[in-house]
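Subject: sequence -> structure tokens, single chain

Hey, anyone have a minute? Need the predicted structure for the following. Not urgent.
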Amino acid sequence: MAQPDPEPASSDGSASVSGSFDARENDDGGADPPGPAPAPVPSVELAGGATGFIAPVGEAWTTWRYGRSEGRPPVDETTTRLRVSGSGRSFDGLLVGFSIGLLAPALRVGSFAPTASVAAAWARRDRVDLNSEIEWETSAADAGRSASAASSALALRVTSIQELSHTAERRGGVSIDVTHYRVHGTLDVTLPCTRSGAAFRRSCRPETIRGAF
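Reply:
Had a minute. Here:
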């Protein structure tokens, strides 16, 4: 029996898969330059009355009010609010959460002073009972205070900013523009214990929240 003719070589000039890889291996152009380092995965560590790791979210809102209402002086002011919050489970099974907010002159990359800031954290047994077993809370004057150290500033640093949404409305002669951002950065603050149930009295001690958001 006659042997079938061999398949003709491809005439479109394309290389085979193995040939493409072989050509790349022998390429004298050098390896591709490394890409940018990945951003840290958002995670904060809780240490003190409650311990564990939870995923936080950083957000910011800027509100620009400008214009002039009838019979009133012109308005041109901008306010910025930052908030870092999160919730999850502690190592001993408690449902824990925290929220840290502050007002800032402007949204930017860099460190922020704890002016007009409020920070709070809580822990409870389950989602059904909304009463917290332990609570931590502080204002700017108390941020960073521990049982053995004087007050120190809340350490919050923003490393990147991403715009999520923008809205605009007009009230009388005043326009109000609000922009919502997702922000990433680092956080380090210690909160004093302000309340606890009798069963958790031993856990009523300063709580440190530290990590990347």
